[in-house]
Specification:
By secondary structure, the protein is an alpha+beta fold. It is built from 21 helices and 17 strands. Helix 5 packs across helix 9, helix 13 packs across helix 14 and helix 16 runs antiparallel to helix 21. About 5% of the residues have low confidence.
Length: about 625
Amino acid sequence: MDRFFGFDLGDAESAIARLSKDDQVAPEMLTVVGEQSFITAYAQLQSGELLIGEKACYADSVVKRKLRFKSRFLSDRGVAADVKSFAAGVLGELYGSGDLIRNEECSFYIGCPAGWDRNTREHYREIFESAGYPPAKIISESRAAMVSACQSRHLQVGVDILSKPVLVIDIGSSTTDFAYIMGGKEVEMQTAGEVVLGGGLMDEILLEESVAAAGFGKKKIQSVFDASEAWRTYAEFAARRLKEKYYSDEDYWSTHECKESVVLHYDRPVKLTLKMDRKIADRLVNKKIAKLGNKSFRDVFIASLKDVRDHITGSQPELIFLTGGVSKLPAVRDWCTSVFTEAVIISASDPEFSVAKGLAYCGRIDEDLKEFKEDLDQLIRSTAIEDIVEKHTPELYRSAVDCLVRPILEDVAAPVFDRWRSGEIRKLEDTDAILQTEIEAYLREDKTRELLAGPVTAWLKPVIEELEELTVPICLRHRVPYTALSLKSYLSASDIDIKVDAKNIFAVEEMTFLIDSIVTAVVAILVAAVDIIPFMAGPEGVLIGVVAAVVVLFLGKEKMQDKMLSAELPKAVRMLIPKNTFRSRLDSIADDVKASFYESLQKEKDDQITQRMVEEISGQIEQTLIKMAEVVEIPLG
């Protein structure tokens, strides 16, 4: 895709942002019907013409006119047709202005409340598809607002939003939308996610206060509103803009007059003056109204915050991000602080456009992630990872041998010697099969796996460092944090411990699994090579070297080699060999045994076994990278 459009279709007003794939600047806000933030309304004229925006509110010769319909999408099936008509009108405006080119490689990211489930979102997407839109995807408006803030580097508050719990509160015109985000991923809450409480209620109160203060014109204005829902809604939009203007700098307006005049053109023009001051601002949030069950905006908002807090199953939010037109109201911050006492509160810098911009960012990020995974898949399909593993395999053999020779001598060979010395094992030649069985069993024990975990972890470090020479460029090329495919940071300097960090627990689990898988592969090849391990009682074996010094005295040097293995030596002769002598012998030959064992593996091992191990280790690394890539979502910052 070359360009990404973010469509914030709101209940009261809508906005569209556009971002090209290679843009280094913020998304561009498009002008639709003369406004960057245009009224969500459409009108079908008798002539068949479709109007959207402000003109649709008061146009004559209208067959059908609809405003503020999105808030009823979940409760009124007929609203789907209204969404389609409005969306079609917007699409026509974009084609007409040249902001959208037919058949271009582009996609639309369209916002919806966080509380909408998957089926509702898919139904919503299908509406835009049926209206003729390019490929579309539905994204939570709360998430989009946060992406916008993070991409624009607005959230510089000393809080690591990629790891900390964040509550996004989007105060729209008809609903207040809550989204809980942990580690950059949206987490579904048990609560519905949105509350029927929006800034539109304040607009209605402001309009009522303004009409009440209209003096002699009050009755005329009220009669226009009673006769024309369109003009009433239009006046509410004007009230909304004045309210947001006041809240954007309440200190300034405390010493200046904040008012706006609206001329209603119905049967004859009539003028309505809208005014905001501290007294009216107080009434907007504290007046009890029937729509809220005789409660105030403040009462319901605080109750909603408490309900959200009680339904968060994870950690309570450390950051609360406010967006929407009412978000800059100072009282909103105070209400949030009263419920979430430890959280940092921050609001969007451009609340009217943050969702649309965030949606456009989401489009580009998704495209980056798609190409990122394609490049990763290409790397996995190549032999690059196998080549790295095979290059480092000799060192893995050496590390395993160095780690296991002494424990095998002490825990396996010594007990077998004790059994021969006590007469339990009749002949030295019998120790070959016994040692082979005992060593194989020892290699499969959990304590052996634990011994190998350290050397394997140390061996992985240079492998991972070399691997990152291939993965880091892929991440950087597609604006994905390079740590997304990094395993090196999870290995500590101790070579055995794995750093456990709650924010990256998935990767820690994958690291543990990867190490365990490599240990399994190493054990498998060692078990397959048991017959060449120079611990046996043959001519070069450990037991012969210790026993020979005593046995030669009885059989003679010439006959020692031929007779000793099959001879049933008297127990008294066996007991002449002290245990300490044997253990001293083990200490002196440990390095020689390591060298001999390693050389045997290098020269005599089955190449098919080694190749299978290389393939298995490479496969586990590849699966780890795939799983890490699967959880890479929208990088918020």
